[in-house]
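Read as chain and fold; for instance:
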Amino acid sequence: MRSGRARTFAVLLGTSLVACSAITDFRGLVGDAPSSDASTTDGMANDGTAPSNDGSVATDASSVTDGGQPAPPRFCADASGLALCDDFDDVDANLQSTWNSIAVGNMGAIGVDEGASVSPPASLLSTCSGGGMFNGSLVRRDFAGHTRALIAADLRLDVFESSGYGALMEIHLSPFPDGFSDYRVALIYTSGTMTLDIYAVNQEGGTTQNNTPIQLDFSQWQRIGIELAMNPTPHATAYDGNGKAVASLPMPAFSGSSMQAGQYVEAGLTYLTGNAKPWKVRHDNVTVLLGD
């Protein structure tokens, strides 16, 4: 598990190929597009490479119409109520028009790619070629403070290290809450399992770290979201594409309402441990929702 530099990324759940819809007081959790019912990694190569035809809702760059019909409207055509929506379908746009910053680590790359997507024609592709210490390839967006933050995305692992540890989305409090030097929730793939992961360090050096598995197969497209909320007590939750809570963990309590000072989210290959091996991950239709 990592320590040191704080990172957070949040990703809001959203629909595939249609605009976001409502669940409780957060939008963008429920997906209407069909998804594969396969829940196995059969057909995976030993290096973690996904099969070329996995039966998911992914499309290649040429599949923008079906039987001569126009392509569906852009996922982010109606982004009202969302703090962020990026479907990566304007292939000529600069990522920095939506994200505050873009980091490209050694051995890494990140950018819009038309090789596969949930909403055509493109998705965000983050890669690491492997062979050394990797400090992340990611996009980041900063927000003013609220008491709830939810980030969701369509996510697919194309190449990964089955025994490795890779962070794919994070939500950080920034500045840190009173009495803490780190406070975040993340979506992490480790030892063959996707997990909801929490990490907090108080200023006396005490560390709170925990994770719980998410039983979804990310060798095919899955809609996934992670939430950090302060009420009634601080906690982190992961949601699937139907808005169902699939994992939850308590977060350390702190005095005051420091979450309202700000938070930031990250998506991509935000962190890999040790001597990194090759990874390739796709995010599509990233949404962020903030609430109180």
Notes: The two ends are 31 Å apart (CA to CA). The chain has one domain: 22-28+82-291.
